[in-house]
Design goal:
The protein is of the alpha+beta class. The protein has helices at residues 10-17, 25-45, 49-65, 72-79, 82-95, 206-214, 294-297, and strands at 135-144, 154-158, 178-182, 188-194, 199-200, 219-220, 223-229, 236-242, 261-262, 265-267, 270-271, 277-278, 282-286, 289-291. 27% of the residues lie in helices and 21% in strands.
C-alpha cells in the first residue's frame, strides 16, 4: 500500500515520484526542480497557510488584470528580475565556446508593450509623427560579429512617447512610435522618432501593490525598444537607453546594460545629417548592432 502520510521532507520526494511515467524528459527535469525548490522555499520561510492563500489571491489578481494589451505576468516576471535572468542565460548559451570575436549586442527584456504588426516604413521615416516628445534621429549599422554589413536586416522598433506613455496605454490611439525598418546594402539604418523619457511601469494592479509593499519605485529609465534580426543570424531583443536619464542605476525591471547606454547629442535647428530641415532643436543617437550567426547560436 502506498504511503498515505508525509512529513515536511518526504512530501517533496512523493510529489517528484509521481513524475516517474512522464514521457517528456525536459518537462520532467523542470517540474522536478520546480517542486524541489518550491517546497524548500516553504520550509525555509516556515510558510503559513494564510500567507500561501494571499499568494494564490495575488496570482489570481494578476490573471484578472491581463487582457489583449496588458500582460501582468510579464510585468511580474520583469520586476522580480526573472525575465532578465532568462535573458542572461540565453546570452550565456549563445556565447559559450566563443573566443576572440567582437561581442554581440547585449539583449534585454522585451517588456509588456510589444505589439505585433507595426507598419513597414522606408529608411529615414519619422515613425513618431504627431507623438509628444523631442525629435531624435537614430542611425547606425547592423553587422555580423566580424563587422560585415547585413543587408536587409530588420529593426522592429517601439517606444513610449515624450510623456512616458505607450500607445496601447491610451484609449483608441492605434499604433504610434512603432515601425519596421530594413537596412540598406551597407547595413545602415536611420529613422526619426522621439528622445525617450523615463516612466513608471503600470502600477495600478497587483504588481504595483507588490512594489509598494517592497518599498520599491516603479520607474524605468528612458529607452527605445528594438528587435533586430537578419537571415542566418540570431534575433536580439534589446533597448537603447538615454545616457543621462534618471533611474539608470535602479531600473524597475533590471534591464539596463552598460553597453546599451547611448549619448543623445542635442543639436540646434538646421539641416540634420540626413538632409532633413529641422525648425526646432533635435537629438542624434548612434548605435551599431552586432548579430550572432545562427549556427553559433545553436
Amino acid at each position: 500500500m502506498a504511503q498515505l502520510e508525509y512529513d515536511t521532507e518526504s512530501i517533496t520526494d512523493a510529489v517528484i515520484a509521481r513524475l516517474t511515467d512522464c514521457q517528456d524528459p525536459r518537462f520532467k527535469e523542470v517540474m522536478s526542480s520546480l517542486v524541489r525548490h518550491m517546497h524548500a522555499f516553504a520550509r525555509e520561510v516556515d510558510l503559513k497557510g494564510d500567507e500561501w492563500f494571499t499568494a494564490i489571491q495575488f496570482l489570481t489578481a494578476c490573471g484578472k488584470k491581463c487582457d489583449d494589451k496588458r500582460q501582468e505576468f510579464i510585468l511580474l516576471s520583469d520586476t522580480l528580475g526573472m525575465s532578465m535572468q532568462v535573458v542572461a542565460l540565453e546570452h550565456a548559451r549563445a556565447l559559450k565556446g566563443r573566443t576572440g570575436a567582437t561581442p554581440p549586442t547585449d539583449a534585454t527584456v522585451q517588456g509588456p508593450f510589444y505589439w505585433e504588426g507595426a507598419p513597414d516604413l522606408p529608411l529615414g521615416s519619422d515613425i513618431a509623427e504627431g507623438v509628444p516628445g523631442e525629435p531624435a534621429l537614430y542611425s547606425g549599422r547592423v553587422t555580423d560579429l566580424e563587422g560585415q554589413p547585413l543587408k536587409g536586416a530588420l529593426l522592429d522598433i517601439w517606444s513610449g512617447d515624450g510623456d512616458g506613455v505607450y500607445d496601447m496605454q491610451r484609449e483608441d490611439s492605434g499604433m504610434r512610435a512603432r515601425a519596421r525598418i530594413r537596412t540598406d546594402e551597407q547595413g545602415r539604418y536611420w529613422f526619426w522618432s522621439i528622445r525617450p523619457t523615463f516612466y513608471p511601469v503600470p502600477s495600478d494592479g497587483p504588481v504595483g501593490d507588490m512594489l509598494r509593499k517592497m518599498g520599491r519605485h516603479p520607474n524605468r529609465p528612458g529607452h527605445i525598444h528594438m528587435k533586430v534580426s537578419a537571415p542566418g543570424h540570431k534575433e536580439v531583443v534589446t533597448h537603447l537607453f538615454v545616457k543621462d536619464s534618471p533611474y539608470l542605476d535602479s531600473d524597475a525591471v533590471f534591464g539596463v546594460r552598460e553597453s546599451l547606454i547611448v549619448e543623445f547629442e542635442k543639436h540646434e535647428p538646421g539641416t540634420a545629417m540626413d538632409g532633413r530641415q529641422m525648425g526646432k532643436p533635435y537629438h542624434v543617437a548612434h548605435y551599431d548592432f552586432r548579430l550572432i550567426p545562427q549556427g553559433d547560436a545553436a
